[in-house]
Amino acid sequence: MDNLVAISQGFGLAVACGLAAVLPLGVLAFAALLGWLPGSVALAVETPVLVAGWAVGVVEAASRALLPIPVRIGLSGLGGAVACELTLGDILPFVGLLLGTAIGSGTGWTTTRMVDRAIASGGPRWGVSALVAGASVGVAALAIIPMVGLILVGVVIWIGMRSRKDDQGRYAGLRVLR
Questions:
Q1: Predicted TM-score of the model (pTM)
Q2: Which one of 22, 84, 104, 168 is at 20 to 30 Å from 16 when CA atoms are compared?
Q3: Distance from C-alpha of 19 to C-alpha of 59, rounded to nearest angstrom
Q4: 54: which residues sit within 8 A by CB, 6+ positions away?
Q5: Structural domain tally of the chain?
């Protein structure tokens, strides 16, 4: 059962890294210090990981809307890989790197599209960034709860499919103009 809980937590933290790549690592380190991550590696319990996760995470989250789209998605994939590996390292070594990269990048792709739409429709860049950063901390906190991480992955898949369907419907009439 501990294996399934750790997998769920790793996947959920990778989803949180898709919103803001580094900020959820601070939540991960805090949960590891409290002993709430059954499969975490010893590095996750270190205090410098906690401090660096929060300090670097705040800077990254604040500047995220200014970064180019491929950089945002790449950072999300990297953050997801680190979060998933730190969470699953004792249970599934190196598998967390691959799965975390896929989940973080996919979530980063989905949220980047949503954030760019919000900013393009008149939302203030810093306000949207602050909301996304707060959401990443909230999602990371939810991911610590056993089995919620698997639900979060399902929600991201659903949102990604839904936004893709909206794009196809939006430009459907332009095919007639060819």
A1: 0.88
A2: 168
A3: 14
A4: 23, 26
A5: 1
